[in-house]
Design goal:
This protein has a four-stranded antiparallel β-sheet with strand order 1-2-4-3. Helix 3 runs antiparallel to helix 4. The termini are far apart. The chain is 44% helix and 21% strand. It contains four helices and four strands. The longest helix is centred in the last third of the chain and has 27 residues. It has one domain. With 153 residues, it is of the alpha+beta class.
Length: 153
């Protein structure tokens, strides 16, 4: 077992390593990008990567407080479902109502990898191999789809 500060330090180190690894990779439009804190430029629409001691998850998370507005964004993503899955080269899980540990309700489209731990350095190559192609694919997808979401702002 790790102490809280040791676990926190390992998580921070992983994301630093991942950030440095991804740093030379340009965005779909060819510019420098912060892959870890990917900005969609649409309020309440986020691309998230999370790694815990049991699972890694990459997601499109819709966080608007109003369920009706979240549903509107979710439906817009559904319109692009085949484009998204083509860009990702796999299907993801779709969840209109997801409860996060903070008690906050969101909507999300996600892929998870179980049996890995960010607290185990031996799992880091597998985590990086999980996150890298998916966040790059999300960026490619977003380059083509974001304009449709800007109209919903």
């Amino acid at each position: 077992m790790f102490k809280r500060d040791e676990a926190s330090s390992l998580r921070e180190e992983f994301w630093t390593v991942f950030g440095k690894y991804m740093s030379p990779v340009p965005s779909a439009e060819g510019s420098k990008i912060n892959w870890i804190n990917y900005r969609t430029t649409i309020k309440d629409v986020h691309f998230r990567m999370d790694a815990s001691d049991k699972v890694a998850i990459i997601s499109i998370t819709l966080e608007h407080k109003d369920l009706g507005i979240r549903e509107l964004y979710f439906e817009q993503f559904e319109e692009f479902k085949s484009l998204l899955h083509t860009a990702l080269e796999e299907e993801w899980k779709w969840q209109l109502r997801a409860n996060l540990t903070e008690g906050k309700e969101t909507s999300r489209i996600y892929k998870e990898l179980t049996g890995v731990s960010v607290l185990n350095r031996d799992h880091w190559p597998e985590l990086i191999s999980f996150f890298k192609p998916r966040i790059i694919a999300l960026d490619r997808f977003w380059e083509n789809a974001r304009h449709s979401f800007e109209a919903l702002k």
